[in-house]
């Protein structure tokens, strides 16, 4: 009898393959093999491969919600917290030979034009990534560590978009230079303006 | 008898499908149908789908080489030329309902981990995009329109990476906001520092 653990196993094993190979290039059978479940078990939880894909996006959304929660919990100064946040991801990529990239960036690139339901959910997850960044920038503003005139929403959007671009470049450079450059440009550049 | 025009037709028709759907999700038959050529004709020019993909990258490389050539030809001030360069691409995306994205960014995301020959060529094309940007920044530096201490290579890399990130975000937002924000942050921010 399939249970909740089976559902999670299918999601996690499928996530791993799709992270590397993309959604369209991953066959249902590959996911079943990796999760070691029969087809019937898959269809007990998901109506179709598309339904699986959309549930996978919800799974990622929950991950980013947890990450966002962690970001606002500590007493560390906000900009330092933000820097550590990106640093943590950089360590992940360094540990993974600069492969995989961001699953949200990958799927946005792949599915943005092909499936409106994916597209909509992906933009929602982007907003979930932007929102805690904006919150930290606002906190820094209140502490007078950033200029009052800075549009924190715009800056947060730019930071997340540029981060996705840096990850994309990393995938072809196969070294973390682009992520380091992102760190330098954002934290020693944009977020170190004279504070008026 | 297949001729050079046939080869170009196959490349251009294939490029269009792959630009929207990705490389792995595009079947050889689709390319043949779009180019209206028999399989034999395809194999006259390309050893395999992979060989076609690598030739497609060379085709893009030639496109960017022409674009880079255009960038250094005019008398317009360098930073204005750079702004127009990105603006031209933004117009392309606006005319295409914010679909497609950058073919190099798309393929980097899709193939960076899957095929070392693609990966290598893609990074070479990235460098072909960075190089003219660096040249314009240097020119602006010589005209004292940018600070002498600016590392123009790093800035050019960051600009291209962030541009790719902005295009990626555009694909899920389905509006040009991220491209406009890129323009504002780069040209009214980074490239408008006090010039020491």
Structure characterization notes:
The structure is a homodimer of 196-residue chains. With 196 residues, chain A is mainly alpha-helical. The first copy, chain A, has 2 domains: 1-46, Arc Repressor Mutant, subunit A, CATH 1.10.10; 49-192, Tetracycline Repressor, domain 2 (Orthogonal Bundle), CATH 1.10.357. Chain A contains 9 helices and no strands. The first copy, chain A, has helices spanning 4-21, 28-35, 39-45, 49-71, 78-95, 103-111, 116-142, 152-173, 177-187. In chain A, helix 5 packs across helix 7. The radius of gyration of chain A is 19 Å and the shape is elongated. The mean pLDDT of chain A is 94. The A-B interface holds A 20-22, 24-25, 99-101, 105-106, 108-110, 112-114, 119, 122-123, 126, 154-155, 157-158, 160-166, 168-169, 171-174, 177-178, 181-182, 184-185, 189-190 and B 20-22, 24-25, 99-101, 105-106, 108-110, 112-114, 119, 122-123, 126, 154-155, 157-158, 160-166, 168-169, 171-174, 177-178, 181-182, 184-185, 189-190.
């Amino acid at each position: 009898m399939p249970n909740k653990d089976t559902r999670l196993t299918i999601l996690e094993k499928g996530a791993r393959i799709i992270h590397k190979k993309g959604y369209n290039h991953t066959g249902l059978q590959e996911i079943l093999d990796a999760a070691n479940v029969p087809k019937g078990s898959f269809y007990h939880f998901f109506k179709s491969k598309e339904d699986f894909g959309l549930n996978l996006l919800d799974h990622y959304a929950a991950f980013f919600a947890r990450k966002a929660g962690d970001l606002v919990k500590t007493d560390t100064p906000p900009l330092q917290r933000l820097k550590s946040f990106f640093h943590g991801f950089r360590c992940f990529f360094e540990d993974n030979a600069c492969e995989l990239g961001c699953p949200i960036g990958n799927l946005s690139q792949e599915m943005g034009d092909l499936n409106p339901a994916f597209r909509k959910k992906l933009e929602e997850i982007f907003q979930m990534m932007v929102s805690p960044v904006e919150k930290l920038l606002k906190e820094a503003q209140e502490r007078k560590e950033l200029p009052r005139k800075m549009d924190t929403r715009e800056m947060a959007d730019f930071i997340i978009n540029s981060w996705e671009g840096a990850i994309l470049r990393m995938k072809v450079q196969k070294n973390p230079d682009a992520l380091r450059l992102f760190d330098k440009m954002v934290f020693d550049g944009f977020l170190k303006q004279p504070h008026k």
